[in-house]
Structure formats: structure tokens, C-alpha cells
Write a structure and sequence with these properties.
heterodimer, A: 166 residues, alpha/beta, Aconitase, domain 4, 8 helices, 20% strand, B: alpha/beta, Aconitase, domain 3, 2 domains, 5-stranded parallel β-sheet, 14 helices, 18 strands, 31% helix, globular
Chain lengths: 166, 417
Amino acid sequence: MQFHGKAHKFSDNVNTDYIISGKYKFKTLDMKELARHVMEDLDPDFYRKITAGDFIVGGTNFGCGSSREQAPLAIKHAGISAVLAKSFARIFYRNAINTGLPVVECDTGEIESGDELLVDLAGGVITNKTRGVAIPVKPLPAVMIKVLNDGGLAAHFRKYGGFNFD
Amino acid sequence: MGQTIIEKILSSHSGKSVQAGEIVVAQVDYIMGQDGTAPLAIQAFNEMGGKAVFDREKVAFVIDHSAPSPNEGVSALHKLMREFAKEKGFRLYDVGEGVCHQLIPESGRVGPGSLVIGADSHTCTYGALNAFSTGVGSTDLAGAIISGRMWFKVPETIKFVCHGVLPAGVYAKDLILYLIGAVTADGATYMAAEYTGEAIRALSQESRFTVANMAIEMGAKAGLMEADEKTFAWLRRFTDHKFAPVPADPDAAYARVLEYDVSALEPQVALPHQVDNVAPLGKVAGTPVQEAVIGTCTNGRLEDLRIAAGILRGRKVHPEVRLIVAPASRRVFLEAIEEGAIRDLVEAGAAVVTPGCGPCVGTHNGVPSDGENVISTANRNFKGRMGNSKAQIFLASPAAVAASALTGRITDPREYF
């Protein structure tokens, strides 16, 4: 899987309330509608700044807080191709993989907003074309690669009728 | 080598002896979804080709986050949940029954050694009953509803040993806020926490729930405690089932062991806008507040209402403060009525709202205005959490919230003892 786009940088500890506020998520299952409010409390214009294929870049503990799966879904439906962060909160990390949103653990210190990135998940490397640096990627556990390659946990269940990690 | 509590519970549910780092597919004893997460789980269930729930006695939905419904969008999702639960034949706790994390323990179905998942991050609360319980998303929930199983990475454990006994006017909430401040919001990410020591053993079972509830705020997958006579006495109120305690082995391996002496701890407050932004209350004493909230899965139990009523009895809430009280469950509400705590709170000027999550998640029941300060017994103070990103939320114990409601300023509750 390869993705190409520009970076939108956020700070450490971006929680799932910031990704999609509770005041929206209880009302609807329309993820396109929720996507319009993604990161709204951190940057009210964020949705309008996204070009399809772009990346959200965080620091440590990205996705902390509530278990709402609307968080990775809203990011995905806003046109973001992958989230890059130094570390992720565990529920968000699972939810992202389960819903087919690639999450990449790497040193995001050398990425700034607006940088042009090439993310090669299979090759395990990110190229920051703006700064001319290569950033290695921490590999996903084998179980998660399988779920992601199947297209998420729902598709995995459809394919195998349950868990199949052997 | 010995095992931690979570290694033992994941071993007993996966049929092999496991250690931290291994991946297991484990049997799940109980599954819960609430109105913020269950609708997406229903969608995932259908997408997975689900037909029936794996065991209708082991699944429950709870309508607590926006209950009663404040608008037609929420109403439609509540209806979807009711129809699904009815069709599949499992229990749905409807409007007014209470917060999921009070109702599931009260159901008597969770105890020492249980493995529970809930599509709500504060599912870690039942660790106070010596159970492994953790929050998951909607798709994981759907997979478990169909199969009765879920995959886990067996986590390492951080052991928090709390020596001494909390002083008067200092509570479980102050203790867990202090620990979160010490290790930060991601100090236990990918790990389990075990809370032990004299100070934990001295806590009531209700107070232990408060500590376990906030394990997620340090990033932990679970917040576990050993079972003792208090645990079993509490469980006997709700079930005849005989649970076997699951202690940690003396030679279990821990990622870290952190020791604290809490005998001189002061009341603590989490300052806006992060739960680990913790300071002694004295540092912000005098800060004006316009709203005060007592309730939530952290601090809405009978003991909490009793402590708040003890401070508010015979006094009046400050005229420029709204005090909102949400009992954790209908049972708690009734018990608090019977012993007079609700009368004390209402006479003091509190607005009592439906048992449930109250204003914690920003959907109803007390959204603050721009520039307002809220002091709350909840577990999260993120910007916008209560529905307005221009308000500030301070987290504290029920005693500190009650004292602050009286003065209109953040106030040390010990002034009222």
C-alpha cells in the first residue's frame, strides 16, 4: 500500500473528542456528515483544508480517550489516507485497523504541516519529499496486517466466518 | 515464572498459559454496548453476516449517554438499538436505569476472574471487582457478539503500590488523579495497571470503582485489583454466584513497580484541558465556577451522593452556580432518596437529572456557555467534552465539587469538616 499527499500536523495527546465531538456522534450514522466536523475543536477549518489522500500527523498518544469508532471512520471519510504518530492509544489503534484506516507508528519529529509525504506501508518507509528524509516505520503486529489486508475486521469475518489468525 | 492478574485471566479464557507479549483469542464472559457505540456495532454485525448473538444471557445494550433522547437523530439510533435487542432476544437497559458501568456490576454477572468487553472506554471500571474488563470499538464488539471471542495482546503490567491511608477529606478520586498526574496520560499505554497496597485495601468497594474507572486516563487497557472480603460482600448483594479470586503471583513479572505513600495526600484537581494536568486543589482554590456536576461512572454512586449531601445539608448552593446531580443508577437514586441524601441535595439547590451519564459527554443535561468554568466529578476534561470548546472543565472529588458549589469558587472540602 502506497499513499501520497501532504501532512497536517497536530500536537501530542489528540483525543477522540477532538477527532469527532460527542455532540455530533450520538446523532447519526452518516460518516460523511461526521467527517465535516473532524478535528473541529482544534481547527474549525480543518475539513476544508484536506485534499483526498492527505495525512494526519500526530505526536504521542494519538487517539486517546473514548472508544468511539466514529473517530477513525470520520478521519477516513474526510479523505485522509493514513494517520502517522509517534504512538497511539490502544483502542483507537485497534479501531483504525478494524475499520481499514492505516495507522503508522514512526518518528513524526521531522514532519511539519504542508510537507509532501510518500508513505510505503509494504516497504516500511516514509519519504518526506519536502525535507528529503526517509523515516522508518514500526511494523504492525502480524494479526493486524492480516485484518488490514482483509479490508478490516468485518471483511475478515465475512471471509472466514470468524477469527482466522493461523 | 509467576503471572500477573491479567495474565491469569487471559490464560483461563484462552485455554493455555500465557505471558505478556503473546497474542490470544479468548472467550468473553460478558459484552456491553451503549448508545454512542452500539448503533455502529449493529451495522458491523450486519456487515459481518451476523445472524444471532452467541449467548443472549451474555450481551447487553445500555441507553445512558443521551438519555432521555434530546433530539430526533438520537431517538432514531435508540430505536435501532431497541429493535435489535428485541429481535435477538438480549437485555437492553433503557432510559433511566443508569450508567452502563454501574448497571453491569449491579447485574451480578461480573466478578473475580471474569473477562468483559464493553464498547465504552471506561469499561475498565470492573477491574475493581478483580475482573479483566476493557473498552473496545464497535467492530470488535460486533465480532464478539457473533463469536463470543476476541483477540488480545497479553499486556505487560505496571504495579502501583499505595502505602498509608488517605487523610480525612481526601478520597479515591484524589488518589487516582494524583497517580494519573504522576505517570501522565500515556504512562500505561498498551499495559495493564494493578493497584495494590494498604491504601487500596482500605478503600470501600465503591471507591475502588472510582480508581479502576480512570485507568484508561493513563492509557491502560485495564485497572485491576485483588479481591478481598469487601469485594465479596459487595457482590453478595447482587448474586449468589461463587467467584474464585484471582490474585497476582508473588513472582509475577512487572514492567514497572511504582510505590507511593498517600498518607499526606491533599485534594487534587485536573486542570483544563487534560486529565493528567493535575495539581493540588490549593493551587487553583478561589477560581470562580458557574457549573458543578456530581455523577458519572466515576463518582455517581451512593457513597459519592452521601458525601456531597453531607457538605450541602442545611446550606444553599451559590446563587451563580448550577449544581447538576446524576445518580449512577436507578438503584442508587432510590437508595439516596431513602436515606435522605437526595432531599438534602435538592433542598440545597441541586438539579437532579436522569440516572445516566448526565452532562459528561456534551449531548444534553448541562452544556456550559462560552468562557464558563465547570467543576465536575467526571473523568475527562478535554476541550469541548461537555459540548462547548470555549468552556473549561476541572475534575475533582464529590466533596470538592460540593464545597465549590456552595462558594462559587474552587474550594477545599476540608473547610466544611
